[in-house]
TrEMBL record:
This is Acyl-CoA synthetase. It comes from Virgibacillus necropolis. Belongs to the ATP-dependent AMP-binding enzyme family. Residues 398-474 form the AMP-binding enzyme C-terminal domain. It comes from the Bacteria.
């Protein structure tokens, strides 16, 4: 059985329980299930008796997104969330790659009509009441595909990754064990539903019969109010969101699990967050769209090992291997391999890259790291980002962490530029905090030399006003050379 398999039972047992909070509205499980059934009926009419369909979803953060998502996966079809922020060029590129059978959008997204796609339908029309709302049982097999997402990473080139039901069902169980939440909680994940982090939080909540607090977009002020008022009891967020929450005046003594992913929290943000949520519990976890959960760190773990991303999730085995795929001793840097039931099925239309990632030793997405004597994992960086300067390896992420420890620095990215003498020279690009107008770059170099081996320190430092970003909000490293 697949995701949402208990939806009918939940709706029958708790018809008035709130499934989704949205603005000032409450959508009960009874109404949520009825909407899913109506959508299923109307989707079946569109399917032309095809067994399986791929459905592109171009809808913002509104309940209709989740109603449609569950309707699609309940039919054994594949949902493809489209990002409203994609340019027409990006959307057409992904259309060509994914080849959806249907594109379902909201009437508020007028840009969908520019996609030159024949099978565009509006969710408002598909939610119309039908005479017969009886639907087939949720008879999806757990090994069937249900979700095709796109991740751009830091390269800006979208890659389609395929998920089956079982990979997320197993991840749900691991999350409940590690983070200690259940069907009595109200989960908020205030990022875009088209991104896998927020989508996972929403789908997990509704799958287990918890409540999900849906926001149209992220606002630090309103999210803090929601948490401090007890309207949500668990939050999934990325560090940029938590940075905004940590800036809020006041604090709350609510015992909130704060689940952070996407990057390590800087000590500055973490300290502020602990003051804002003194009774909260901060979990930092490492994972990826392809891997789901890998490791998680409690506050006790990061107190002893600040740079660690913690221990393996229940059901995950982590190994560190060299270029010959041989195991290396604890403390030695190598390629990180992951074995678990949470892994993706493969990349869309890309058998070569799939075979490079899904190896006989586990999944390896190019991250480098080591395991310490306590069994905790530390990420050093991405192999593809590594700089070779004077024959020595420099991991940009390590240098970036040091630079971002300085109070004047908001963001820092380190890259390698071609150099006749060094091969590559280490160059840092920095963005200053809003209240800082100038900075002494020589002072930054001196600070780095106190914290790092000299060959790792930037030979040049450039102040920038803004960084180029991918559609998923990550800094596009490949474009950084263009701004120098």
């Amino acid at each position: 059985m697949g995701i949402g398999k208990n939806m009918k039972q939940i709706a029958q047992k708790h018809p008035r329980k709130t499934a989704i909070y949205f603005d000032d509205k409450k959508i009960s499980y009874g109404d949520f299930y009825r909407s899913i059934c109506q959508l299923r009926q109307n989707l079946e009419e569109l399917s032309q008796e095809k067994q399986s369909q791929k459905v592109a979803i171009l809808i913002g953060n509104e309940p209709a997104f989740l109603e449609l998502f569950f309707a699609v996966v309940a039919m054994g079809w594949v949902a493809i969330p489209f990002d409203p922020k994609w340019s027409r060029r990006e959307a057409v590129q992904i259309m060509d790659e994914a080849e959806p059978d249907l594109l379902i959008t909201s009437k508020s997204f007028f840009q969908a009509t520019a996609y030159s796609f024949d099978c565009i339908h509006y969710v408002e029309d598909l939610k119309r009441t039908t005479e017969n709302t009886n639907t087939n049982v949720w008879n999806v097999f757990s090994n069937e595909h249900f979700y095709l997402g796109f991740t751009s990473g830091s390269t800006g080139t979208p890659k389609g990754f395929i998920r089956n039901h079982e990979s997320w069902l197993a991840s749900f169980i691991a999350a409940e064990k590690a983070f200690h939440y259940n069907h009595d909680d109200i989960i908020i994940a205030p990022g875009p539903l088209c991104h896998s982090l927020s989508l996972f939080g929403a789908v997990h909540a509704l799958h287990i019969g918890a409540s999900f607090y849906l926001t149209p977009s992220f606002s630090a002020e309103s999210t803090f109010d929601i948490l401090s008022d007890g309207r949500a009891t668990v939050i999934y967020a990325v560090p940029t969101m938590l940075h905004g929450l940590a800036q809020q005046t006041g604090s709350t003594n609510k015992k909130i699990p704060i689940l952070s992913s996407g990057a390590k929290l800087t000590p500055k943000i973490k300290n502020k967050l602990q003051k804002t949520f003194p009774a909260g519990r901060i979990y930092e976890y490492y994972g990826a769209s392809e891997l789901s959960f890998v490791s998680y760190a409690t506050e006790e773990m990061t107190e002893l090992h600040p740079h660690s991303v913690g221990k393996a999730f229940p059901g995950v085995r982590i190994s560190i291997r060299n270029q010959s795929n041989e195991l290396v001793p604890n403390g030695e840097i190598g390629n990180i391999f992951i074995e678990s039931d949470f892994l993706f099925t493969g990349y869309l239309n890309n058998k070569k890259t799939t075979s490079e990632v899904l190896t006989p030793y586990g999944a390896n997405i190019g991250d480098l790291g080591f395991i310490n004597h306590d069994g905790l994992l530390t990420i050093i960086g991405r192999e593809k980002n590594m700089i070779i300067t004077g024959g020595l390896n420099v991991y940009p992420e390590e240098v970036e962490k040091v630079i971002k420890e300085m109070k004047s620095i908001k963001e820092a990215i380190v890259i390698g530029l071609a150099d006749e003498y060094w091969g590559q020279k280490v160059v840092a690009l920095i963005m200053l905090n809003e209240d800082i107008s100038t900075v002494d770059t020589e002072h930054i170099k001196v600070y780095c030399k106190k914290q790092l081996a000299s060959y790792k320190c930037p030979k040049e430092i450039h102040v920038v006003d803004v960084f180029p970003y991918t559609s998923t909000g990550k800094i596009a490293r490949k474009e950084l050379n263009l701004i120098l």
